Task: structure prediction
Amino acid sequence: MKSVSLALGLAALASQASAHYIFEQFNHGGTLYPVYQYIRQNTNNNSPVTDLKSTDLRCNVGGLTGNATQTLTVAAGDSFTFKSDIAVYHDGPLSMYMAQVPSGTTAAEFDGSGQVWFKILDLGPTFDASGTATWPLAQTYTSTIPASLPAGSYLLRIQQLGIHNPYPAGTPQFYISCAQLTVTGGGSGTPGPLVSIPGFITGTEPGYTVNIYTNFHNYTVPGPAVWSGASGGSAGGSAGTSAAAPNPPASSAAPTTPTVATTTHVAVSSPTSVTAVQKYGQCGGANWKGATTTGGIGK
Ligand SMILES: *[C@@H]1O[C@H](CO)[C@@H](O)[C@H](O)[C@H]1NC(C)=O
Ligand SMILES: *[C@@H]1O[C@H](CO)[C@@H](O)[C@H](O)[C@H]1NC(C)=O
Ligand SMILES: [Cu+2]
Result:
């Protein structure tokens, strides 16, 4: 009966796997589009990328092209929103980047290689009078296509960096998705500074190595400076009403406000094949030996 107990063991392991979160829907002009219509679909479910040298840092695992992804036309100056399946709940900053697609290449074909990425948004923590940090944890993140951005095709990349497991015992986790856009209108701005991904974060940045639970009073989001032509954004708020999505997210019962984002380690639906616990199934990173709940840590 060895095979039976093995099967039971695997089933038990599979049911312990926890959900993280993945930015899977794009909202523009009041329309919340179906999952992965304009966002490249990754192949690692909602697990993070942690290898600072990997091309997976660009548009997530399996996201080097977007063959099955459509490209949305937006106007420079338009606002847009990324929505995740469940609210982001690992403490850390949120950034958005863009990269212009080289001429002769479609947005779907572009792999994001080269020194082409510029940052349009950083959302770091706020510190109250007593020094307690509040992170921009939400299910939706809204920003604006810079009004002076030259017209053309772009990748638009959202990145939430989970630094809840302090380095070096823990490894910061990148939660990433890329949308494919054709920007109309626009201006003659010169986006920059331009960086390459990987390479844009080396692992020595204070915003990467910081322990947010000890003497944590200030924070600088890693990566390049935000392009001066960009105009900011926000976490949370309305993501607009849902269109008739043929493919709604599996979990929509999650909280949308940061204050209740402590109950979101929900079980994933049973994987089709499981050989071991998912690499970051316990949410704590490869070597995490500390707390295994997110509620209240450092608060
Ligand atoms: C996507 O397109 C690229 C470039 O045409 C091609 O090399 C790759 O095999 C395609 N991938 C899929 C999954 O169709
Ligand atoms: C906080 O500020 C100090 C002084 O400028 C700096 O050395 C440190 O790297 C900052 N910490 C973070 C996490 O950004
Ligand atoms: Cu997690």
Q: What stands out?
A: The chain has one domain: 23-242.
